[in-house]
Each structure stands twice: as C-alpha cells, then as structure tokens.
Design brief:
The complex is a heterotrimer of chains A (487), B (431) and C (250).
Chain A: H1 3-17, E1 28-30, H2 37-46, H3 51-66, E2 89-91, H4 106-115, E3 131-137, E4 140-144, H5 147-152, E5 156-159, H6 160-166, H7 168-174, H8 185-193, E6 198-202, E7 211-217, E8 228-233, E9 238-246, E10 253-264, E11 269-276, E12 288-299, E13 305-312, E14 317-320, E15 323-326, E16 332-341, E17 346-355, E18 361-371, E19 375-384, E20 392-402, E21 407-416, E22 422-431, H9 434-442, H10 447-463, H11 468-481
Parallel strand pairs in A: 3-7, 6-8, 7-9, 8-10, 9-11, 10-12, 11-13, 12-14, 12-15, 13-16, 14-17, 15-17, 16-18, 17-19, 18-20, 19-21, 20-22
Antiparallel strand pairs in A: 1-2, 3-4, 5-6
Chain B: H1 9-12, H2 24-40, H3 56-61, E1 64-65, E2 86-91, E3 94-95, E4 109-111, H4 119-126, H5 134-142, E5 146-151, E6 161-166, E7 174-176, E8 179-184, E9 189-197, E10 204-214, E11 219-227, E12 232-242, E13 247-254, E14 259-268, E15 274-283, E16 288-297, E17 303-312, E18 317-326, E19 333-343, E20 349-358, E21 363-372, H6 376-384, H7 389-403, H8 411-425
Parallel strand pairs in B: 1-7, 2-6, 5-8, 6-9, 7-10, 8-10, 9-11, 10-12, 11-13, 12-14, 13-15, 14-16, 15-17, 16-18, 17-19, 18-20, 19-21
Antiparallel strand pairs in B: 2-3, 4-5
Helix pairs in contact in B: 2-5, 6-7
Chain C: E1 2-11, E2 14-24, E3 29-33, H1 40-48, E4 53-62, E5 65-66, H2 72-78, E6 80-83, H3 95-109, H4 117-131, H5 136-139, H6 148-162, E7 166-170, H7 178-190, E8 197-202, H8 206-210, E9 215-220, E10 223-228, H9 230-239, H10 242-249
Parallel strand pairs in C: 3-8, 3-9, 6-7, 7-8
Antiparallel strand pairs in C: 1-2, 1-4, 4-5, 9-10
Helix pairs in contact in C: 2-3, 4-6, 6-7
The chains are: A alpha/beta (487), B alpha/beta (431), C alpha/beta (250).
Amino acid sequence: MSATAETVADVERLNEKYKYGFVTDIEAENAPKGLNEDTVRFISAKKNEPEWLLEWRLEAYRRWLEMTEPDWAKLGYPPIDYQDAYYYSAPKSNENAPESLDDVDPELLRTYEKLGIPLREQEVLAGVKNIAVDVVFDSVSVATTFKKKLAEAGVIFCSISEAIQEHPELVRKYMGAVVPRDDNYFAALNSAVFTDGSFVYIPKGVKCPMELSTYFRINAENTGQFERTLIIAEEGSYVSYLEGCTAPMRDENQLHAAVVELVTHDDAEIKYSTVQNWYPGDENGVGGIYNFVTKRALCAGDRSKVSWTQVETGSAITWKYPSCVLQGDDSQGEFYSVAIANNMQQADTGTKMIHMGKRTRSRIISKGISAGKAQNSYRGLVKMLPTAEKARNYTQCDSLLIGDQCGAHTFPYIESQNRSARVEHEATTSKISEDQLFYCRQRGIGEEEAVALVVNGFCREVLQQLPMEFAVEAQKLVGISLEGSVG
Amino acid sequence: MAAKEPLGVSAFAPAFRERSGEPEWLGGLRRDGFARFSETGLPTNRDEAWKYTSLRPIARAKYEAAPANDDADISDLPARMLDGSARAVFVNGRLAPSLSDLSGVSGAVSPLNDILDEDWVQSLLTADVDGAQVMYALNAALFDDGLAIRVPDGETLSRPLEILYVAAPGDRALMWHPRMAVDIGANASATIIERHIGPAKGAYLANHGADIRVADGAKLTHAKAQLEGGEGRHLAMSRVSIGENALYDNFVLTLGAALSRNEVAAKLAGADSEVRLNGTYRLDSRQHADHSSRIDHSAPGTRSRQVYAGAIGDNGRGVFQGHIVVDQIAQQTDGHQLNRALLLSDHAEIDSKPVLEIYADDVKCSHGATAGDIDDDQLFYLRARGIPAEQARMLVVRGFLADAAEGMGDEAVRTALLAELDAALGLEGLQ
Amino acid sequence: MLEINDLHVDVDGKQIINGLTLTVPAGEVHAIMGPNGSGKSTLSYALAGRDGYETTSGTATLGGSDLLDLDPEERAALGLFLAFQYPVEIPGVAGMTFVKTAINAVRTARGEGELSALDFLKLVRARLKDLNIDEAMLKRPVNSGFSGGEKKRNEVLQMALLEPKFCILDETDSGLDIDALKVVSDGVNRLRGPERGMLVITHYQRLLDYIKPDKVHVLAKGRIVKTGGPELALELEENGYGDVLAGLAA
C-alpha cells in the first residue's frame, strides 16, 4: 500500500471515531493573519457596523492587551500565539448575504447535510417537531431557517450581525450587560473580534413556537471562532435553545472563544442546551480545539428561570462555567452537566450560582467522566449574598474514573452570608463498577457497550434534561467518546 | 520603578537575626525560611491557599518579638484537662520549667533547644520544607523555643501530655513562634493535648509550627483547645507524616482569638495508614477562624476522615478549606470530608472549599458541605418537650458541634474537649 | 451439555475449586449443595468468566464449546446464563434498555440480527405475561431500589428473555420469603425443557422442594464429594453437612 493510501485508510479509520472530522473545500475570504487594532477595524468594517460598536470593540481590545491569560484552571497547554491565527474567515459565496436558503452555496448545504443538521424547512412530519436553525460556519452565519414562521409569533431569531443592523437598540442595550467586555481575558478577546453568532428576542408573553438552535462549525485552517450569542426573554416568555459544535480533524490546535449572554425578565424562562463535540485531538493529544467560553445568565426578573444543560465530549481543552446571576426574587438557576474527557483531553468546567434575590433557588448536577490519560475538573461557586433571604442551593457532583491513568478533580467554592439561606453540597468520586460491568457482560453485552450503558446510566439525570431529539444523539455520543477506554 | 516590598516584610525583619551556638543546618533553615518569607510576604486573598483569610492586618500590627520572660507573673494556672497528665507550660512562647510538671515523661519530652543536635530533630525539621506554608517558613526563621517529644519504638508515653500555652502580652503587641517536634516510633503511642489561653485584653500573635512523624504501626492522639484571648491572633501549621498501619487522630476545638488559622498537612505515606481530622468551632463578635487541611494519600489502602462543624454568630466568619489529593499509586483509598456550618446571625459568614484531586481510579472519595440556620424541626421538637426557646437553641447548637467530636477515638480526650465547649456555651455539667 | 472436568480455580492466589468434575446433560436439573465457603459462588463466577477467578487447570465446555477462554459476553452468547445471588444495581439504566441491549448483543453475536422494536416489544410482553410480572418493573432502573424478591424475579425475567441453553442459579433462594420463593421457582420451572440444562446452587434444601432436581451433588472444599438423587438433599437437611464431611475426612 502506498503511503498516501495508508494515510487515507488511517483517516477513514479515525473518522469512524470522530465522524465530523472532514473538511469542506470552499473558497474563503480571510482577514490578514494576526491580531491588532486593524484586525478589529477590518472585522467591524466587513460587517458594516455602526461607529459605537467599533469603539466598543476597540476598547475591549485595549483592555485585553492589559490583561493576562488566566492560569488558575487545572489545564496544561503550550502558550497560545494570538498572532498566528486568522480572526475572520468567511465563505466567499456568502459575500452577498443570501436572502433565502435557495441562495446558499450548495457546498455548504451538503456540509450540513453530512453533519445531520436539517437546513431545509421540511414539511412537518407527524410526530417530528421542527427546529429552527442558525448555522455559523467559521466566522459568519450562513443561514437561519424558519425566520418567517418565527416572525409571525414576534420572535426574532437571526445572526447577531443581522441584529446589529436591524435591531441596534436591543443589541446596544443588552450586549455586555451580562458579561462585561473586560469580564475576563477570553471574554475581552471575544468582545474585540467576535464575528457572528445568534440573536434571539422573545417578546412579552410569547412561548416560542419551536426549539431554536445554532450549529457552530469551524472549517478553515488556523482560524479562531469567536461567536457571541445573546438571548433576551421578555416578561412571561419561554424559549428552548440548543447549540451544537463540530470541527474538522487537524493537527494544530484551534481557538474557540465564545461569549453567551442570557437575560430573563419577570416570569420568563430560557432553557439552554449544549452538545459540545469540537474535535478533541487524537489519542496522543495532537490537535483539537481549545474551547474557552464565557456563558452567563442574568435572571433579572422575579420568578424567572434559566436552565443550562451541557454535554461536553469534545475539545482538547475545555474552560467553561455557564453561570446564573439570580437577581430577581424567587428566580431559579439550574446547571446540568456531563463532561467526558478521554485520551489526552483536559476539561475544567462547572458553574457559578450567585444568589442575590430572596428565595432564589439553584440546583447543580454535575457528572464528570475521566478515561485514558484525561484530566477532568469540576469548578463551581455557590454564593449567597446577604440579601438572599431563604435562598436554597443543592449541588451534587459525581466523578467516575475509567482506568488508572486519568484524574478527576472537584473544586467547589461555597460562600454564604445569609443565615436563612441553605446550601447543600455533595460530591463523590469512584471508579466504574466492576460488578456492574460484569453483570452486563454476563447478559451478553460487550465490554465497550457495557461501559457506554453504565456511563449513560450515571449521566441519566443530566441527559434527561435535554430535548428528546438531542438526548438520543447525546447518549450515542457518550458511548463514542469513551471508545477505547477499556480493555 | 522600585519593586514594591512584599507585604509585612519590614515588620518582621527586626525579629530575624543570626543566632550563635546553633547547628549549621538550623542556621540554613532559618535563612531559607526568612528568604522565602521576604519573597512572598504575608499571604493575602490573592494567594489561593489564603483566599478567604488575609493576613494583611498582621502587617499593620507591629508585633515585637516577645522577650525572655523569666519574671512572668503567672498565677492560678487552670486545672489540667486530663487527670494524671504531665504538663509543659509555655508563657509567651517560651517554656517555663518552674510551671511545668514532666515527671514520668521526662525521658520522652525535652526542650527543643536542648536537643537540636540530634539527627531525628534535624530530619524532621528539614524534611520537605518547600511544600509548607510561608507562615511556617517564618516560624522556622524566628522560633526561640519549643518542645521535642520522642517515644521510642514499641513504647507508650506513660502519661498523656498537656502543653499549655499561656499568653501574657502586657501593653505592647508581642509575637512568638513556638515549634514542636514529635516522633512516635514504630508501634509506639502517645496522647498530646494542646491548650492555648490568653487574656481578654492585649494584642499578640502566636505563630505555631509542628513537625510530626507517626511511624509504622504507631498511634498519636493529638488534640487542641484554642482559647486564645480576644485580641490574640493564632496561626498554626502541623506537618504530619504517617507510616504503614499508623493512625494520626487529630481534633481541634476553636473558641478563641480574633483571627485564627489551624492548618494540618498530613501525608499518608505508609500503606493502610489512617488520618482523622476533626474540628469544632464557635465564633462570635468579629472572630475569624480558618480551618485548612491537606491530606495526601500517597500509599495504597489509606483512609482519611474529616468532619468540621462550626456555629457562627454576630459578625463571625468561618472558613474551611479541605484538600484531598490521591496519588496514582494510592489505590483503594477511602477519603471523606464533611464541613457543616450553622449561621446564627444575620452578619455571620461561612466560606468553604472542599477540594478533591484524584489520580487513582480504585477509590472511594466524597465530600459534603452544608450551610444554614438551625434546623427548625429540631428546635420545635425540644420546645414541644417544654424546653425554653433559648435553651433549646443552645442545646441544638451543642449537639451540632459535638457531633464532629465523635470521630475522635480517645473518649477521655473527647470528654475533656467537650467540657471546654460546654463551658464556653454556658452548659457546664451537661454530661 | 455442561461438562466440567478436573477444574481448579484460584481467587487472589488461593485455590478455591480443587479438581471439580461434573456433567449436566441437556434437559436435566442438577443441584449443588454445600456449606458456606465450599466454593459454590466461586464455581458460578468461574463458569461465567468473572475477572479474578482464574482457572489454573481443567476444562469446562458447554454444548461442546470450550468456555474458559471466552469473555463473559461470549459465554452469554453461547447460551450460558447466570442468575446472580446478588443481582447488581445499575442506576439510571432502564430495565427495558438493558434487556434490549442484551438481547440484541446476543442475537448479533449469534448472527441472528437485531430484533425490530415491534418484535422486541412483543417478546417482552409475552414473557412478562408468562411470568405474571408488571411491565412497570422494566421501566425502573435495573435492580435499583428493588426488594430482594423483585431482584430475583427480574433475574428470572431476563432468563426467559435471553432463552439461554444453560442456566446457573446461584443461591436464588437467598433473601426470599416463602411466597417470593414460590413465585420465583414457578418462573424457573416454566423454563425447564428438554433442550435446556440447569445447575441450581443452594445452601438449603428448601429451594429444592420447588425446583425438583434430577441429581444432587455435595460440594465441599472445592470438589464434588457425594452425588445422589433428590433424597440426598433431604438427608442433608435432616443431618446437616457434618455427616458427609465427616465421612470425607475418614
């Protein structure tokens, strides 16, 4: 067999493990490599942004220059060269923003078909719910489906670039209100160079008629993806939003630094679900996405609620703490997380629940699975401020170890300044049960499938929070992510 | 631009001096200790290990090294905590032989300064000092006095030893840095109780350091009642190494001091060894008490148990930091920690950080933490039985705090400590 | 059917099964009785292929196929079923998911192809009805929070669904009251048939009142020391193991 053929065979074999690892061959327009004020200006100009936003970006960039990359997480990686990346890459065919799906480059449509993302606004099949999708390809949103149907309900669902043009007052009011542009190093970087993302606005009293979702895809080489998502739920409204991510397999690491801001007003609820399956690198730790994400919700209104559910199986490095600031009285925050780290992956993820309002409640269920030589950390903060009368928190944090080369770590911070507030935290760490595996195998179930079954059981409390369509995918992903972890 | 001096270095510099007549290794240890302190200064919230306890106020206090106090006027020492125990008395950080009674244990217990040339002392004091906290390094640089306890292989310390640290600071703000070295030989055992007392008025800093080795098959019961004076600041770090099948059984009762930190770093170095760290604290006024622990499971089959319970009133602030590390080799580790806090006032605060860091797979580890007010159901139950509300509250608090003492294996020691707690709660004669 | 010849098994370096020879033909039910520590559970785990139960010498075959070199799931695919003394709880995994995964894994291993969702459901419903078990049991996580009786009924249900060639029942009577014992035994008896062999391991004769064995073997110190008909069980019940073991020493 020739060397090329061998490589092809290798790649095919690997592809079985990470089936999203292909590259789409499409002509792209890039910003010049590197990062400086001109890069920021380039991006802003490309997007035809108003002056205030350019200033906002430049200020974020200047703050970023003064900040240092955080090193407190339990993560080890070589220094990132921020000058050795492209900060903007857009498919050329997207230059004149497509009016409808018919105008979208068929090559792109094929890519999403291959990824299993429905971009055609199909006829509603019996029993199958429609999902509106915004698709972000490298730096830009290439399509948003079901916009018309959503508009009838008063829901705005579009790319953030479009929102900046069409709804500047909303963007200006809320962007940076939850995650200040200098909140942290990666948030500042994102604020300077964000290229696209999704925008959702649910008006007063509206229950969003369908699930909304954004599908993020990194395709271009040496390109960072910096998206920004903003969801605003007005009084009494409800929306369920899903997010999925994949990237091609490449030997170099690629940077993804996103910011997500959620705002709920009185009696509003946002359910935000993520299945993060960025390319994790190979079993030797070569390649993979560096995923540094700032996600935060402001439960501004009384009785409002935000529920974060995440299934984190991808990325070489995950640095991510979806949080809730519980400002409104009786507001609620939830965090349900499954984080799987296999091979050389490193994950440092958790949440912050900041209780300000009276009778605010939070619930944290975190399931960490470590296999191979991976390091998996839960890091969380529960803070009861003096105003948090009769607030409640319950945290359950369980870690499962598969094999003796990996690590599982738990770093909870619990701070209470209110006597009537009650905090309960429990954490356990144990190895995957030999008894359970043997029981499954005695019934004829193969070892890898037995591991997938037991781990899915371990994660059930979290997985059942996902919308049905996602839950099935996520269960499969749990099994795939752990392939090769036993035997 | 001149580099800013690390916090508090100039405040402590006058106390650091070259000492003649000491072994060379100790001179080196002291210089290294002070160099390290000079580099980092007093820890503040920016230091992750001190996130909730800043020593900034100490920099401002201008403590002077306590002079040798041959003329210290100490009358009416409290009765011994345990009947029949030997007693070493320290006044302002220095051993006062005339107040001490070491009969029966004098072979095992000696002034540290008298035996600095013994190998075991050197090996204990110099082992892995880089891993210790900076305040321990400062203690190494500045200690004037201390106690050395050595129980030979297979023997039992014939009487429990009480070490009574009395603070008598007078008008000036004083500081002392006593050191303790404990070596419990293979299959030997001992019981040591520390008691720290001080007057209601008078500022001082007691910065203790202890190096403890519990050899294979040995057992050390080590308890402490911290009843420092209201203006006192108390820091203590114990470094403990535990051999195969050995047990280190530790309990701390914290009631005194304006600011205190009790830190234990225990290494389970031998297979099937065990450590128990338990603590109870009751805080009022503006008291700040920090209980920090780090347990390294470094051998297979090791076991750790920790329960800390606190009740915090007024503007008090409690801190718990527990860090369990399980090395890759430490399979079959069994490690549990629990931290429970009652907040009894609107201004009380608890901060807790129970960390698990695990590199072995065949482990059973857990931690739990709770914070909140008194359980209304319990209160109601007592009141329904005719107990007045205030007394019922006190009983519930007492029960909550005493629970943490259950882990202490030695019943006599436990009883003596709970008697101190009851005295502080005004519940004498309850048992 | 099941043929065990001069089997030696070590656990933690200690020899527990010590030259055991036993043949159970198809269609027969044999009982193995023995005092605590005689090696009963070790035998069932060794036959099922649990890690840590090391065969140092001897052979064991099922229907002519060698068992000892196979992984547990391969033995299961060959048709070996072990009803556990202590069925394992698997939190979060619904019973339905579990049996579906198991049935399809075994079918795939046998080259029979997976059952369609409809056929699977038909099969499950039929077996539930046979055994008079409520479908609710399969909606709960496997064995989690089950009573002792529920766990054993769940074992019998799985046995019925997987249609094994050979069943080992390890102390199936332990932890059961008399009513539960009857129900479980009825279930087992339904599964008796000319093609199927069974090995019933028990400490007490009680179970054998309900599951009548063709032969009874006495296990002591890791080997079969006496074999007889059902009357041997009654004898043991009356006189205890003392007599048999005393005879062994003499």
